[in-house]
Amino acid sequence: MQLCFAFLIFTFDFAMPTIHLTSFIAAPQDRVFDLNRNISLHKISMEHFGEEIVSGMRSGLMNKEDTVTWKGKHLFKTRFFTSKIMEMKPFETFTDKMIKGDFKFFEHQHFFKSADNGTIIIDIITYETPYGWVGELVNKFYLNSYLEKLIENRNKVIKQYAETDKWRALLSNRR
Q1: 158, 41 in Cβ contact below 8 A?
Q2: Could you give all domains of the chain from N- to C-terminal order, each with its CATH number?
Q3: Which residue from 72, 77, 152, 165 lies 20 to 30 Å from 101 (Cα-Cα)?
Q4: DSSP one-letter code for 139
């Protein structure tokens, strides 16, 4: 049994996990960019987890240096996650990074590329969990797919808004 367990530990690559997702939305790049940084749409896309804001920015579009702290139920526990927009190049990219929360490290890079009839979104999430090799096993067998589904669901909600007139309610200052 111990040999089998040791084999499992030493045969896995325990590098910091990275998730790379690509999505297409049939809407202009500036609209998709702004919906991705819209606080209200984030709340809508995370309703299933009961996410609510407990401090920081509470509405509108997040910009560089803005922070927000979310409270939500993830992985069977109420969790707090504070993120900050570290970098932003309007309509092309922005990066948010966890500054307080359960991860040792969490960074989400958002890239937006104009394409025929729409926008390609590239999400790159890099994270590190605590708890040593146990955390690494949780990453491999559960957390990675959980985070992928979370971002895929969020992108579906953004797509629903961006490709219909729903976006107008969230970005009221636009035509």
Answers
A1: yes
A2: 16-170 (3.30.530.20)
A3: 152
A4: I
Burial of 170 (0-12, 13-18, 19+ CB in 10 A): buried
φ, ψ (nearest 5 deg) of residue 25: -130, 130
Cα dihedral 149/40/127/66 (nearest 10): 170
Helix axes 144-162, 29-36, angle to 10 degrees: 130
- Residues 81-92 have pLDDT tens digits of 999 999 999 999
**pLDDT of the residue at 135:** 81
d(CA 46, CA 91) in angstroms, rounded, equals 23
Q: Two tokens at 17?
A: 């996990």
Contact status, residue 60 vs residue 38, Cβ threshold 8 Å: yes
